[in-house]
Each structure stands twice: as structure tokens, then as C-alpha cells.
Amino acid sequence: xxxxxxxxxxxxxxxxxxxxxxxxxNNGISLEAHDGxxxxxxxxNGAGKTTLLRIIAGILEPTSGSIFFDNLNxxxxxxEIKKNIAYLSGNTKIYNTLSCYELLxxxxxxxxxxxxxxxxxxxxxxxxxxxxxxxxxxxxxxxxGQTQRVNIARCLIHNPKYYILDxxxxxxxxxxxxxxxxxxxxxxxxxxxxxxxxxYMEEAENICDKVIMINKGIIIAEGSPDKIKKQTNxxxxxxxxxKLIEGDTNEE
Length: 252
Fold this sequence. Notes:
The chain is of the alpha/beta class. It is built from 9 helices and 10 strands. The chain has helices at 49-56, 78-82, 100-110, 115-128, 144-156, 174-189, 201-207, 225-232, 237-245; strands at residues 2-14, 20-33, 38-42, 64-69, 72-73, 85-88, 162-166, 193-197, 210-215, 218-223. The protein has a 6-stranded mixed beta sheet with strand order 6-7-8-3-9-10, with helices on both faces. A 4-stranded antiparallel beta sheet has the order 2-1-4-5, covered by helices on one side. α6 links the parallel β7 and β8 (193-197). α3 crosses α4. The longest helix has 16 residues, at 174-189. The model has no long low-confidence stretch (mean pLDDT 90).
């Protein structure tokens, strides 16, 4: 189980008047994610979604608050916890000059996957993500959707328990998106825990057990899609979100 307790992250920005102003990208966020659960993290640009996911993944240090994976405090067990995490950023760059196969072997080495297991694991992943037709192609020659599947593949090589996926299907065609969504559903069935940030409310409604809506660094609603729709007297999550914020977004 993943447990996030009262996470705050303070930044300083420079205003047009050249003044330094402190602000909180996350301001007291708490959540729980259980085994075999898909949790959607929803909100507009600037709401604090990516900051939160980077903190949970151990890429950013919180200003205050605590994170626990299976009752282990992140601060004291960082190396052990990271072995069980897969983090996918929406703008991750990968080596264009390598083939998909070469990249996955390199990632297997980084995660200390036994050489005898690495080959088998790569072939399993290629089948899961429908990559077999381009597995040996240079990454620079792939389409956007194929490249994103490679990006996800590199996260799977060590068979993580926790997936932290930030805009995994952003800008993809319908076929690539569906392959990724099917993969997420299958990993849930295996008992994996998935945090899934997306701008596509329909996706979240389709695959998430629970959604957490964030605006201006705070949680404004959480619960199952049906629960939130019932609370807001709406028929979809998009309308529910706009009803909750009443036009007050943090977009710039």
C-alpha cells in the first residue's frame, strides 16, 4: 500500500515586477492507494499533479510531509523503495540512436536484472505492448505511439509493484492509447498499484477505481467516478470537475 501524508511543496517564483513570491504547488495533500488499485490524478495545467507524482517517485523532495510504501518510510528506505517503482514522465526523452531492444537491455542492467532473466523479460514486454514488429528498430525511426510504448517498456523491465504514470497517453493515436490502457488494466489484475495522471477525463472514468481531483495544489474531490458524479449531480467527470472549481483554475 502507498500512503501519502500531508505533502507540501514550496517554490519561489519571480513576478513581472521582479519580486520573489513563495507559493505551494502542493499544499497538504494526503492519499492512499491499495494493491490492485488504479488511482487517477486529475486537474488542469498548474494544479500540482506532476509535482505530486515526482515527489511520490522520489525525484523531488517535499517541503514537508511523509510517504510510505508498504509501511516503509521513503526518507529512510529510498533505495529499496525505488526498486519497486516505475515512473513515467510525460516528456521523458530516450536515446534515439539505440534500438528498442538495446535500450531495454541497458535498463535491465541498471536495475540489476539477472542476464538469464533479461532476455525473457524483454520478449514478454514486447508481446504485452505489441512491440514485436519494431523491437529491433532504432528508436529515432519510430512513431510517437511506438516511442511511448518503448518508454513504458523501460519502466517494466524490473517488474515493479508501483506504477506512477504521468500523461501516459497524451498525444497518442487511438490504437497506441488503447494498447497502453489495456496494459494498465492487466497490471491492476496482477495486484499492481497504479497512479495515473491524465487530462483525458473519459480515460479516468473508464479505468480508475478512484480519482483525486486537484486544483491549485489542494484536493478538491476524491472517490470513485460514480461517487463524484453523484456528489456533483453530473453525468461525467469533466462536468463534475468544472462544477467543483466553478471556473477557478490555475491555468496560465
